[in-house]
Amino acid sequence: MAKAKKNKSTRKADIANRMPLKLNPKRLDPETSDEAINVLIVGVGGQGVIMVSKVLAQICQNLGLQVKQSEVHGMAKRGGVVFSHVRFGKTVWSPTIPKGKADVLVALEWAEGLRWMDYLRPDTGIFITDTKRIVPPFACRSRILGADIGYLKDTPDDIIGKVAETFAIDATDMAAKEGNELAANTLLLGALSTTLTFSNEVWREVITQMVPPKTIDVNLSVFDKGQKWIEGSRKGEPVEGSAFIPLVQPEDHPVRTTLSIIEEWCKGCDICVKMCPERCLTLNKDQVVELADPEECTGCHICEWLCPDFAISLNPALNPPPNPIVQEAVA
Ligand code: SF4
Ligand code: SF4
Question: What is the CATH number of the domain that holds 143?
Answer without folding.
Answer: 3.40.920.10
